[in-house]
Design a protein that fits this description.
- The complex is a heterodimer.
- By secondary structure, chain A is of the alpha+beta class.
- Chain A has one domain: Folate-binding fold, CATH 3.30.2270.
- Chain A is built from two helices and six strands.
- In chain A, strand 4 and strand 5 form a beta hairpin.
- Chain A is globular, with a radius of gyration of 14 Å.
- By secondary structure, chain B is α/β, with parallel strands linked by helices.
- Chain B folds into two domains: about 180 residues, FAD/NAD(P)-binding domain, CATH 3.50.50.60; about 150 residues, D-Amino Acid Oxidase, Chain A, domain 2 (2-Layer Sandwich), CATH 3.30.9.
- Chain B is built from twelve helices and 18 strands.
- In chain B, helix 2 links the parallel strand 1 and strand 2.
- The longest helix of chain B is centred in the N-terminal third of the chain and has 17 residues.
- The chains are: A alpha+beta, B alpha/beta.
Chain lengths: ~110, ~425
């Protein structure tokens, strides 16, 4: 079973304790944004085959949202980090690049 | 190519079956085609078939990175039904179901279509209201379904426990002409028919890049060399996001794992398909006697073709309550496929931001039942460059425009 360490309470939580929340680091379009920006925020997804930055909630634990870097092919977890983070921490990016040289995080979406 | 018939079987019986030929050819790819279809699953092969049959376009290559029908076409629970709530869904799924009725004759290949009837159980008051509404909608759409009470459910499927305890069966939406078909045979039958009409099916040929000039597609790079094309159809289900990335656009799709499992074979005990959406499990019995079981998709993004253990446990736990007879059965095989989920749980058949590049995806957890209708509508879209009446509502721009075809709420969770 997939285990993710909650960065708040430090528990290595089993997947059944967690609720998946889709892609992380989306730019939330505001009221003035264009239709295209809303489309990108609400619907369009990278859906990568490989490293994926995603949101999880420790639903059956502390109840808080956190972020994880997980590989969608191997389920390898590159790290978890708090949701109040605008971009993945350097050590998580380094661990991903060790497996996928040249991997870059797309900041536009 | 030999026509399959009782006479052919008798003739071969007299010569040690030495006269059978391969059902489809494996040609070397040419440098250029009129149309390239990426993905030799059911939808891709059906697209190629109807391009030739309905539009006379036979200069077509179907590229497959693995083996023919080895993706979701070979990994589903083979259920065919068209009892959807929304009009565009009912139209395309009923087109598919009606084509399935005569597909064996049309393809000269026995796809073992078995219209044994599909019932979707209502186990809460909410579902009762929902399915009564769907039955009324189906009556207006010309889709033959009816609302039946719990006694009729028990009569049609005696192994059901209709008395609960948690979720008593309150009735069901019954589609008597729904059923199952042999999933591999659908891919094989289309492949054989395509090959007979001169379409190239090229296996072990993964697309690595999509080439374009001035915003119009010009061809693909593959592991077997560059192939030029005038039009490109991307029909790759779970990998749609990857191919869309190569073509330079994004899709409103996320890929997750959906799994299915079969039990050891037992004597015939169930001659209908039962879907229980509240507890999230569905089941039918195969011709070999195996109970074919499906459940819910995982919630997280996944390309691994393996689902999570706890979803299997939830599915089986739920079905045992409705079918106590299952509790001592051993499970034989278990597998997963990568399903392409849209936000409204309806498919995408659409033009794309790249000229002459078309996409057919988003069938999510319910693609098998739609194969003939999907291929029919996609062929029309590719041949004319504009969607016909079946495909038009399923444009990828419908999300931005707020024209959802919301089956995620209407049809329950399982498709």
């Amino acid at each position: 079973m997939l285990l993710l360490t909650c960065p708040y309470c430090g528990i290595a939580a089993e997947e059944t304790e967690l609720a998946p929340g889709g892609a992380a680091h989306l730019t939330r379009a505001g009221p003035e944004a264009s239709d295209a920006a809303f489309d990108a925020y609400l619907f369009l997804r990278d859906n990568p085959k490989g490293p994926h930055l995603e949101r999880w909630r420790h639903a059956m634990g502390c109840g808080k949202w956190f972020l994880a870097a997980r590989d969608t092919v191997t389920h390898e977890v590159y790290g978890t980090y708090p949701a109040q983070t605008r971009e993945p921490p350097a050590e998580v990016v380094a661990r991903i690049r060790a497996r996928h040289p040249g991997w870059s995080w797309r900041s536009a979406g | 190519m030999t026509r399959y018939s009782a006479f052919a079987i008798a003739r071969e019986a007299f010569r040690d079956h030495l006269g059978w030929r391969r059902a489809w050819a494996s040609p070397e790819p040419r440098a250029a085609y009129d149309v390239v279809v990426i993905g030799a699953g059911g939808h891709g092969l059906a697209t190629a078939y109807y391009l030739a049959r309905n539009h006379g376009i036979t200069d077509v290559a179907v590229l497959e990175k693995g083996w023919l029908g080895g993706g979701n076409t070979g990994r589903n629970t083979t259920i065919i039904r068209s009892n959807y709530l929304q009009d565009p869904s009912a139209a395309i799924y009923e087109k598919a179901r009606s084509l399935y009725e005569t597909l064996s004759q049309e393809l000269n290949y026995n796809i073992m279509f078995s219209p044994r009837g599909v019932m979707m159980l209502a186990q809460t008051e909410h579902e009762v209201r929902g399915y009564r509404r769907t039955a009324a909608a189906n009556a207006l759409q010309g889709v033959e379904t009816e609302w039946i009470g719990p006694e009729r459910v028990k009569a049609l499927c005696p192994i059901i426990n209709i008395h609960g305890p948690r979720y008593p069966v309150l009735g069901a939406l019954w589609q008597p002409r729904g059923g199952t078909a042999r999933h591999d045979a659908v891919a094989w039958g289309y492949a054989r028919a395509c090959s007979r009409m001169g379409i190239h099916i090229i296996q072990n040929c993964a697309v690595t890049a999509i080439r374009s000039r001035d915003g119009v597609v010009t061809g693909v790079e593959t592991t077997r060399g560059a192939i030029a094309c005038r039009k490109l159809a991307i029909v790759v289900a779970g990998h749609s996001g990857v191919l869309a990335g190569m073509a330079g656009f994004r899709l409103p799709i996320e890929s997750t794992a959906l799994q299915a499992l079969v039990s050891e074979p037992v004597k015939p005990c169930m001659d209908v398909v039962v879907m229980a959406n509240t507890v999230h499990g569905y089941m039918s019995q195969s011709d070999k006697g195996e109970m074919v079981i499906g459940g819910g998709a995982d919630g997280r993004n996944d390309y691994s073709q393996r689902g999570s253990f706890h979803h299997v446990e939830e599915t089986v736990r739920a079905l045992i309550e409705t079918f106590p007879i299952l509790s001592r059965l051993k499970m034989l095989r278990w597998w997963g496929g990568i399903v392409d989920m849209t936000g409204d749980r309806s498919p995408i058949l659409s033009k794309t931001p790249l000229g002459n590049c078309f996409v057919n995806c988003g069938w999510g957890t319910g693609g098998f039942k739609a194969i003939p209708g999907s291929g029919w509508a996609m062929a029309e879209l590719v041949a004319r460059g504009e969607p016909g009446p079946l495909a038009a509502p399923f444009s990828m721009t419908r999300f931005r425009e707020g024209r959802f075809i919301d089956e995620s709420v209407a049809a329950g969770v399982a498709h």
